[in-house]
Specification:
The chain is mainly alpha-helical. It has a domain of 66 residues. It contains three helices and no strands. Helix 1 crosses helix 2. It is flat and about 85 Å long. Keywords: Membrane, Transmembrane, Transmembrane helix.
Length: 127
């Protein structure tokens, strides 16, 4: 029963909000647009701040993980490891290679087609 009361209250609040928006649109249009622009601007500002901090945190995490992997690889193999620039160059080369069109394969020379009884096939559309 409590969910029923909750849904009724929810619908009443939504109805009042819609009524308020229409009222503002009819009688106080300039203030409504000003309020909408301020809300959108505030949301964009919050999104920008959130995106900026998340991007910084992810970028530093990647470099720390990369450094750790290089260190482990040097310990394991004891030699020089490709640095980040050569690694990126190799990735670019792979992407370019994938974008190239595939060459058609040559037919095997030891295989040939044997003509069978093509004339004796029945046309199923005539049945």
């Amino acid at each position: 029963m409590s969910t029923r009361k909750f849904s009724v209250v929810f619908y009443i609040l939504i109805g009042l909000a819609v009524f308020g928006v229409f009222y503002q649109l009819l009688f106080n249009t300039a203030e409504l647009f000003k309020y909408i622009l301020m809300t959108v601007g505030f949301a964009a500002l919050l999104f920008g701040i959130f995106y900026f901090f998340m991007k910084k945190r992810n970028a530093s995490g990647f470099s720390n993980q990369y450094k750790k992997a290089v260190k482990q690889s040097k310990q394991k193999y004891g030699g020089s490891v490709q640095d980040k620039q050569t690694y990126n160059a190799a990735l670019r080369k792979q992407k370019k290679k994938k974008l190239d069109y595939k060459r058609p394969r040559k037919k095997a020379s030891h295989l040939r087609v044997i003509d069978g009884k093509k004339d004796k096939k029945k046309n199923r559309a005539l049945f």
